[in-house]
Design goal:
Elements: H1 2-13, H2 19-58, H3 66-88, H4 97-124, H5 127-134, H6 137-148, H7 157-175, H8 182-200, H9 206-234, H10 244-272, H11 274-279, H12 283-294, H13 302-321
Length: 322
């Protein structure tokens, strides 16, 4: 916004005719840009809050077949996306071969392998260790973001990395430091890679397809993959009738998380870019902490509250300076 105003001011100072009208247009554009930026921040933070709260919800699915549950979740979400696409009357866009590869990789890593690696990590380490490793996502996006961002405003590297470091440090404090084996750390790092790829692989697709089509494609691609993996792993036991509590948890994962949070996150990612939007991932452990407290699962201590303050400071500083 400051750049727009400075350019308008320079033109006005040169004595160009109609400078009052041009200045007004510049101010209006600056205000519109500020409102849009704020909207993207709110959307991204809300998406990550929904994701953070899902950890407490997912605790009610520990006895349900994991791959079967994920297949049900993404089947429902894909059906909802299809209805939305149809009702909005969006024109059909045919992906190129390269775009099909990107969509398939995005679905395989960000959806399917992410869930598989989470389970594998939790068999060898605790949730705190896994959460602390995955909380490094803002730093990964700050480093890798420029590699996939071809145009637009790029954050300055030093403020972006510094703010991401603050968010990561605060998230680790909120999440806590656990313990685990070397295998658990390896799977946690693989989970982190999949978490980052969920955003990085989407960046080149969003300008052409938009958040709705990208979300619809990746969820639809994930369903047969999960069904095949589930049959190979659990056979006919991959699916069973869920209990009332499990049904409510699956509905939360399918609708608010997959449909709602996917759309909000990709909208924010497209508007802010991976480096700036990545800072908002720090909202995940904060929301998880708040959800646990609200559901009576745990009460945040002084250290966790201090971590929340560091996360907020990192996000605010990063968005302001980058």
């Amino acid at each position: 916004m400051s750049t727009i105003i400075e350019e308008v001011g320079a033109a006005a100072g040169a004595g160009s005719p109609g400078r009052g009208e041009g200045a007004a247009r510049g101010v209006r554009s600056g205000r519109a840009g500020t409102r849009a930026g704020t909207r993207y921040v709110v959307q991204g933070a809300l998406a990550m809050s929904v994701l953070g709260a899902s950890t407490a919800v997912s605790a009610h699915l520990t006895r349900y077949p994991v791959l079967g549950g994920q297949a049900l979740r993404y089947t429902l979400a894909a059906a909802v996306f299809a209805v939305i696409v149809r009702r909005q009357g969006l024109p059909r866009i045919r992906p190129t071969a390269r775009e099909w590869v990107l969509l398939t990789l995005l679905s395989a890593t960000g959806l399917v392998l992410f869930n598989i690696f989470v389970l594998a990590a939790l068999r060898h380490t605790d949730a705190a260790t896994l959460g602390s490793v995955v909380a490094c996502s803002p730093l990964v996006l700050a480093i890798a973001g420029p590699l996939v961002t071809k145009s637009g405003r790029r954050p300055r590297p030093v403020p972006a990395l510094g703010a991401a470091g603050l968010v990561v440090a605060g998230s680790a404090v909120v999440q806590g430091f656990g313990h685990g084996s070397a295998a658990g750390i390896v799977f946690a790092v693989l989970t982190l890679a999949c978490e980052a790829l969920f955003s990085l692989l989407a960046v080149p697709l969003l300008p052409k397809f938009g958040e709705l089509r990208v979300s619809a494609y990746v969820t639809a691609i994930a369903v047969p993959t999960l069904l095949v993996a589930g049959v190979a792993t659990d056979g006919t036991a991959m699916l069973r009738v869920p209990t009332l509590t499990e049904s409510a948890a699956l509905l939360y994962l399918a609708l608010p998380l997959t449909v709602g949070a996917f759309l909000l996150w990709y909208r924010s990612l497209g508007g802010l870019g991976p480096q700036r939007a990545g800072l908002l991932i720090g909202t995940v452990p904060v929301a998880a902490c708040a959800a646990s407290a609200a559901l009576g699962v745990g009460t945040p201590g002084i250290a966790q509250l201090a971590g929340v303050a560091v996360v907020v400071a990192g996000i605010v500083v990063g968005l302001a300076l980058s």
